[in-house]
Design brief:
The protein is about 45% helix and about 10% strand. The chain is an alpha/beta fold.
Length: about 675
Amino acid sequence: MARYARVKGSIALITLTNPPVNALSAAVRRGIVESVSRALKDEQVKAVVFCGENEKFCGGADIKEFSGSMSGPPLVPMIHSIEAGEKLMVAAIEGVALGGGLELALGCHYRRHVSAQEALQLGIVDQVAEGSAVQAAMELALSVIGQPLNPRRLSLRAPVWAPDVDGVCDTALAQVKQRSRGAMAPVACVQAVRAAAMLPYSKGMERERQLMDTLFRSGQARAMQYAFFAQRNAGKWSLPNGAQWNNTRARDVQRAGVIGLGTMGRGITVCLVKAGISVVAIETDAKQLESGKKAVTAMLQRDAKRRGVSPPLHLLTFTLSFHQLRDVDLVIEAVFEDMNLKKRVFSDLCKVLRANTLICTNTSGLSVDELAAVTDRQPLVVGMHFFAPAHVMKLLEVVSGSRSSPEAVATAMALGKRIEKVCVAVGNCSGFVGNRMLKLYLDQSVYMLEEGATPEQVDQALEEFGFAMGIFKVSDLSGLDVGWRVRKASGLIGPDVDPVKPSRWRLGRRYCPLPDMLCQQGRFGQKTGRGWYLYDSPGSKEAKSDPEIQTFLKDYRHKYGIIPRRITSQEVIERCAFSLANEGFRILEDRIAASPEDIDVIYLFGYGWPRHRGGPMFYAAQVGLSVVLEKLEHYHRVHPDVPSLEPSRLLRRLVAEGSPPIQQWKSHIKNLRSHL
Ligand SMILES: C/C=C(\C)C(=O)SCCNC(=O)CCNC(=O)[C@H](O)C(C)(C)COP(=O)(O)OP(=O)(O)OC[C@H]1O[C@@H](n2cnc3c(N)ncnc32)[C@H](O)[C@@H]1OP(=O)(O)O
């Protein structure tokens, strides 16, 4: 796993060979140790150059090995022996030098990097080379052979620090603690820097080892490792008919249409154009078209300025005419979330598009099958559910309808990857994966307000758990009117609802009218300056506690005869997180998602679930499935009018089968119908 070659007479070239990223597996470390020893023994060798195969230096430790017991030579002593080696060591860095890969590079006496001016300025690398880094490294080695090595050994250098380094570290620690939201690793990084600054090298290394040991054994490390592979596996989609990522060809998309230039359409247009795809952007109203054009142009200009390139405005066509869509390869519909409107758009599209053009809908939860049914091309219809703001959020749910062709799914997945999204293929059902689960999480949050909590208490518990924002702040940001409209369309709100004392029981289950009552008062969230919180002005972002809301909640409880009780942070987390996981199990039973990993990726990239907690399914596994089952049974007993709290069949089955590890859950879902 490390190739040894003698080149240019006096250079030993050690190539790390563990594609795709030359991670430092046990075999690679063994190969390095053996090769270094060979080079040190070979009298002809005056210098050693390290490089990685396929122009990738090294992606760091092999994360796959973290879950087992470590074997092979340990990393840090290996690097120390390279640094202490009596022969010149040079790292030829190309592509990546991450984690242990960077440590290996720093252990060498000289480094180079192909593109990192910043690393040069920081003194991490000695020279930035154009062309082959390996050639440049060898030339550098030949030019410095014979010079003393001690001044090049980092372990012998005294660190250069500001006089008040302790104060600087204190400030950094406070900032990191606030930002890391419970994640241990960023805090440990600052502690390691402090150790490097205050202690002699060997003591500093020892402190780093202790910190590393703690992190390594933590549940957070397991969650992050799981999240890393879950993200990569999401791209390896498969359909029940056997079609999958590596046997289905995606179509090439050169020209796309975007229908609707509201918030979503604008973001989608920006993503496509940035990836070099020509876009015909359509609006029905000249004023909307103009404001969409301005917004898209401004976003692209800002982005181009930041990256020091010119904005690809030549790829854009803004028009009111559907006829301009004649030549596009794919259309993404992003109009208002209204089934009838979308159906109209879909049938209008069929009149102008080529017969083989794909039609995608950006619906956040409406039936893709129902929409496909109004077209003349059901196999060519899929969902592409972007998350707002679409040019920022990484997640894309690709919704495979019951008639969607493998080619259509492959094309949407490939397009998503091209525009740098994390894509997850899901089946068709109301809300797909993310929003179907979100509904139950939202329900629990508002039920807790009825029972005695405040929006601040719920949000604080969620933020302490690690969410960037609590659910009520997120709702204010997204706009409370969005859900209101959906509830109206689904028949939950209608003329028969008493406006003074709206019913808390609808469609056969508990219903919380609080969000509707807020909307009736014009409290739509940030955009109106008032929602669950108060804002200085419409559009401002800082959420402030609103005494009116506290009074409103008190009056509400009084009106319905609810005696408020204290709700602990633990209850908030259990009811929110376990409701999410419980619905996740149902989604797996229904085969709307192919694996728990896919569900977790959706929550990590679309809903702000903290990465150091893996995702709702991983979290349930980590807490223990029997504990989750017990808690859900308890909450369901206390709230029998909330059927979603009833533990799912799959959860019960998994507990009965001894709570197998998450990677094995898939094999326990047998004989169930699939929507994927
Ligand atoms: C103690 C701890 C120490 C000393 C460490 O070093 S911890 C590890 C530090 N390194 C990292 O965290 C890097 C993780 N990898 C990445 O960030 C990226 O993979 C990349 C920037 C190196 C490359 O990105 P990209 O080109 O987009 O490719 P993919 O991310 O899709 O990865 C390709 C395949 O390689 C596998 N991979 C990547 N890194 C590792 C690794 N460190 N260990 C094991 N496997 C790794 C990844 O899973 C992909 O595999 P497949 O999906 O193709 O099977």
